[in-house]
Amino acid sequence: MRTILSIFRSDIGSLSRRFFALAIIVAISVLPALYAWVNIFANANPYANTGEIQIAVASLDPGLDLEDGTHINMAEEVAEDLKTSDKIGWQFPESADEAIEGVKSGKYYAAVVFEDNFTYNMYHFEQALLDNRAPLTYYENQKRNAIAPKITETAVTNLQQSIKTTYLETVFGFIFDETNDIADELSEDDTSDDVIARLKDLRDTLRAYDSSISAFTDKSANIHSGIKDAKKKLSSASKTAGKSASDAEKDLTKAKKTLEVLKKILVNRETRIEKERASLEEVVNKITAGGLSEEEKAALIAEAGEKANVLKSDLEGLLALFPESEDSASIMALRAVLSAMISDVDTLTTAFSNPTAIPAIMEELKKLSQKSLSDSVESLISTIDRTMELMDPLMNSMSSMLSGMSPVLDSADNTVSELDNSLLQMQTVFRMAADKIDDIIERVEAVSESDRLALLIDLLGGDPEAYAKFFSSLVDVEVEEVYSVASYGAAMAPFYSVLAIWVGGVILISILKTHIDRKKFPGATESQAFFGRFLLFFLIGQMQAAVIVAGDIFLLDCQPVHPWLMWFSAAVTSFVFVLLIYALTISFGDIGKAIVVVIMVLQIAGSSGSYPIEILPPVFGKIYKFFPFPHAINAMREALCGTYRHDFTKYLAYLLIFAAVGLAIGLLIRKPFLGMNSFVSEKIEETEVL
Length: 690
Known about the structure:
Elements: H1 2-16, H2 19-42, E1 54-59, E2 64-65, E3 71-72, H3 74-83, E4 89-91, H4 96-105, E5 110-114, H5 118-123, H6 125-130, E6 136-140, H7 148-185, H8 192-239, H9 241-289, H10 294-320, H11 329-349, H12 358-396, H13 398-446, H14 449-460, H15 464-472, H16 488-511, H17 526-555, H18 563-588, H19 590-606, H20 618-623, H21 629-641, H22 647-669, H23 674-686
Parallel strand pairs: 1-4, 1-5
Antiparallel strand pairs: 2-3, 5-6
């Protein structure tokens, strides 16, 4: 210990006698702090200036005329509200095309376009459930900046939440307008029974909305299950993507050939049906021309019946090719034409006893065959052609499609989940409103006839807007912060402070010598030399840590819950980092310095200092615990935001394990490499460059 302290005193004496050396020590004590402070200050409140982020808002919504003659346009109302907001730089170009072009050109970071069904869906809940088109379209330019899209997405999400609240206010405002109208009309000629009947209608409407949502969410459960199954199959398929793609291409080729055959069948059947209809028409014309004997007429009727049966058989055969379960528009149209023709043939075979009805039937059959059937077959063939055109690029990109399906399925699953949550919130309030009406009806029916009108007026009267706002507020979320921080910059302080401490250690090995002067201490052992010079590194490292934390607290106002614990965590971190860096450098020389830089790079990327480790590439999630950064950052977060049980002590204990690693490297592992380090150092000096 005496030798170790002698080395340390010698180092301090050498520095104190030289002003230039002292200036360098002061500089390297402050320099790492500047690195931390600049980054923390730059991130202090990056969202305070989001008003400069420009998002365009445009509308294709024509609005809606209500039953009372009022014209309403909810898109314009939302836009007017946005004009008063200063959190985002909302812009309002003249048209949707101008907004979209502005996103493409980089004039706007993003654009929101209200589609033409926006207002309509606000006032037609059941139709909105069936509408496959989104009432808003969001355009985003991700090229301009990496972070700006996250800000614009947050702004649009907040806008979406605001619209949901407005939607609920609209829906429930409509409901309570109805009850208020009923209350107003009670002073006229309505009886209590009429009013109760209207209340029951309103209640039934709400129950119908409730059922619609239940039906939709029940189906969405199947969608979730289907997506999960698809993802499992996709995961399995991706392991043999080449074979899967090859099999899929074979299946598509078979399907394409099948469609080609179907086209030929359609063309041939259409031609044959028209010939059979024309042949039947010739016989029918002879029957209706008159001047026939009873025997000739009977023979022609029999011949017409046979031809009608042949025609009907071909029509039914063609109809059987397309099951009723098919919901394609072209197939449904063709089925309708074939069914109508079959019905006409059936009618014709029973109409020979009444010749006056036959011409009209034959004219309709001719029109169906030559026009409707021809158009339907042509439409279906066009659909088949388009399908086959789509198959070609699909076959060419089957392998890439397999790898691209996973994010699509994830997105679909998230979309269905979000829609389910919104609908279930609405369903809760629908049920509450319906139950309330049931309660009103029950209370009214329980009193005498003479008191019912007065009670109804009392129960149904009120302000619809107040009711609407109350019910829409039932879906609001109250945010309660746990371990809050002063600002975003303060939240990033642990990461940048820990990183600055490591940078400080790197600066130390770049400026200070790791080996002592053997001429001054010829009898010092390797261990004594190691600890003797390390004490100087340790002292300057502690100065660096103290300056960093003092600046975080007093200059940047990070407002830690436990200031002294924040300093203590920085002190322990500096001790561990400096020891590890010093040990690697003294043991492996320039190679050790390179290892220090590599370790720093890996920890910057994968220490979960800024992004959660869960969203980083999996490799970082597997290795990050084996580096000191995460434990040092977590300990400083405990001091900054507030401690939880024994976590602060636990993180420092984990961190000290790396101090033991540093000692093992510097005292044990270094010994076998002493000769090699001397050899490498000599060769480097011989280059006269390195």
